[in-house]
Amino acid sequence: MPQRPFVFPAGRFLLAALVAGLVLVFGHHGALAQSDANSFISEKRPAIDKLIKEIDGLTSRVDSVRENDSALVELQLKAEAAARDLLNESVAFRPRLTEINTRLEQIGKPPAEGQPEEPAAVTEERNRLIAEKAKINELLGQAENSSLAANRLADQINTIRRDLFTQALTRRYEIDYSLFGATVKDFRIELEQLWRSISNWMRFVTTYKAPSVVGATFFALLCAAVLLIGGRRVFASAIYPDPTVAEPGYLQRLSTAFWSTLLPSLAFAVFLGATYLLLDVFQVLRSGIDRILFSIFEMAGVVVFVNRLARAVLKPAMPAWRLVTVETRPARVLYWLATAMAFITGLDYVLNTINDVMMSPLSLTVAKGMFTTVLLGLLIVATGFLKPIVDSEGVPKPWPNAVRVLLFGIGGITVIAPLLGYVGFAQFLGQQVVFTGAILATMYLGFKAAQAIAEEGSFAHTMIGKFIAGAGRGDPTTLDQLGLVASLTINFMVLLIGIPLILLQWGFQYADIRAWTLRLATEVTIGNVSFSLVGILSGIVVFIFAYFATRWFQGWLDGNVLSRGRFDAGVRNSIRTAIGYLGIAIAVLIGISVAGIDLSNLALVAGALSLGIGFGLQNIVSNFVSGLILLAERPFKVGDWIEAGSYMGLVKKISVRATEIETFQRQTIILPNSDLINQAVGNRTHRNHLGRVEIAVGVSYNSDPKQVSDILLRLANEHRLVLRHPEPMVYFAAFGASSLDFELRVYLADVFDCLIVETDLRMAIHAAFKEAGIEIPFPQQDIHIRSGLPGDKANVAEILTRKGTQDGEQDAAGDDAAATPGDAETKGKTR
């Protein structure tokens, strides 16, 4: 059998070409993908390695700052920030991992043994993807381990800080009173060293920095004077109480107490802060001196604030302006006791700073703490012995039992605790009495001020209320509403400022509060839902801005575009309403997006509630959809004269839920939109205001119908509001029971003139008919009595006689009842 010549089959040729193309494509794509993957990993690895190294460094620094709470807070915040950054870097790999897994699923597993081999390009790509995935997982594993280490470090630091605070309060020092002489000697030595340091610094200042000190002091005094003098000019009536007012209102007393405390304290704080800042800028302060001077400035600021607050609340010289019910003499004593407590507490703080700067021995530190805390405790106990209240008979009475027990308890603990060695606890307790007490007293004034402003009519008596009322921009109702807003704002500001200050007094650091505030503002988690307060506030601000922008655009479009286009009022109202709803919808969507709310979650919630909405809100939804249909199809518009059911009137407003109609009796009717869609509605001004008026009139049967028709047509054509085209017509309606019935039909250019035209024509018809001798009859009925039957005349005569007798008796009885006896006799004779 002869052999056939070898011919390369076309199918095999195509298969070979396809495989070669795949090899080229996959090989080239694989090389590019490999390059991109390596560059992506190389780009992310340095950042992750840097964070890992930073976390290792933070871990090694913990032991060196174990006794420094502020440094521990900074380490804790850095560890938490590093953990968050690692998480963010890890999240960046998720899209690439998803892409790799998807591609591996598409390629599939390697062929099993005995199955045809796959192209080499496919095998190469699978191996490359697996290797890349392994590198990414390795890097993510390192990042996850370091993130866990950072979280453990933050927890460890938190535990160390808690133990440090507990130790500071519960630590007991061994008090050896036999070493009192040595303590006095140490105090003398430290005082000499302190004086030497201050003297050297003063010589340095007078020699090299005298102009800088004078300039800094002058500029600081100038700033404080501007604030104080300007504030007194603006708030003079609120700062200085009027001694001639016998019974000032509570809000007036609160306002005076607030401004008389705030302005002087703020001016003094500005002076101290500006002085310290300028001295530091001019390099006047030396190391150690700066800390001591700063503590002295802090002490002075606190003492001045407490002094002004006590004076504002107690008003020792002006009982009528006092905010608390206390007698005058105890008020003076309380005022000085509060100032003395603030001074002693501030002195303790300054001495502690000096101890840190001078590295004083422990015995001297304990002795100073004992001195200040015992003295403070004695002042608190002395406060408990006061009798500030007077009963109805004028006899002084002590504090209520609860207040006395609290004062004696705190004062006794503050005195006894340092004597037993618990100096730290006594110092902490004394500081809370002064600082926390001052903060709480200020917050109390703020809350009472908010409560007073919220009362009806109170806001109108404030400076802002008087300004608004004087400008003519607020009625009493508006001012009361503004008072509620002001009250809520004051309460919010009091909490926003007071709570952090209290937390600072109770051992927390600024960094703690800053971190909590940032976390609260950026991420609040409830269950599986996370949201941001800053995002929500931003969304609200954006929504308000978009809302007012929509209102402005509505006004601009209506006043500048639609008014020039000669659109009628109904069309303009429909366009304005549609733009308003569209703008509000866009504002809501933008606000939600800015707030960071996931709309997909809202879609899920809406889907879950769709059944309940369908049953429970079907009427509202029906009215809403009907309102949209009315706005789109516009079967009637604002200003149209419509008839819907038993109601007739003018359309005043079309909303998405209901339509407002005003009847001609000035009654407002609110009709649901679904009723207007589902029933017949008559519109007399749908396309234009052209209308027809029918006037019905009847004439006697003796009248000439042609004459009547001519008169009616003449009167219609003579009226100025009746159209000539279509021309008037007279309709001979019917032969009535007592008249010939005609109907005059005329057309008007404006149907709203119908009442005027009908009245004028009726008056003209009456006059014309009277002049022409045409009678306008009224309904009549003739009674015919048939006669000629047997006995009819006798029966009729009998009936008439009987009826006349009855009528005469009734008339006589009525006259007798109403007249005098003489009159009755006269009438009887007459009859």
From TrEMBL:
**SUPFAM superfamilies xrefs:** Mechanosensitive channel protein MscS (YggB), C-terminal domain (SSF82689), Mechanosensitive channel protein MscS (YggB), transmembrane region (SSF82861), Sm-like ribonucleoproteins (SSF50182)
Specify where the region named Disordered lies, as residue ranges.
801-831
| UniProt entry keywords in alphabetical sequence | Cell membrane, Membrane, Transmembrane, Transmembrane helix
Q: Which residues cross the membrane?
A: 213-235, 256-279, 291-310, 331-351, 371-390, 402-423, 429-447, 482-506, 526-548, 578-597, 603-631
Q: Which InterPro entries match?
A: LSM_dom_sf, MS_channel_C, MscS-like_channel, MscS_beta-dom_sf, MscS_channel_2nd, MscS_channel_C_sf, MscS_channel_TM-2
Q: Does the keyword Transmembrane apply?
A: yes
Ranges for domain Mechanosensitive ion channel MscS: 619-685
Major location, coarse class? membrane
Q: Where in the cell is it found?
A: Cell membrane
Report the GO terms under cellular component.
Answer: plasma membrane
Q: Where is the Mechanosensitive ion channel MscS C-terminal domain?
A: 693-776
Question: A Pfam family in this protein?
Answer: MS_channel_3rd
One example GO MF annotation: mechanosensitive monoatomic ion channel activity
**How the protein sits in the membrane?**
Multi-pass membrane protein
Q: Family per UniProt?
A: Belongs to the MscS (TC 1.A.23) family.
Designated name of the protein:
Mechanosensitive ion channel protein
Biological source species? Zhengella mangrovi
The lineage, from the top, is: Bacteria, Pseudomonadati, Pseudomonadota, Alphaproteobacteria, Hyphomicrobiales
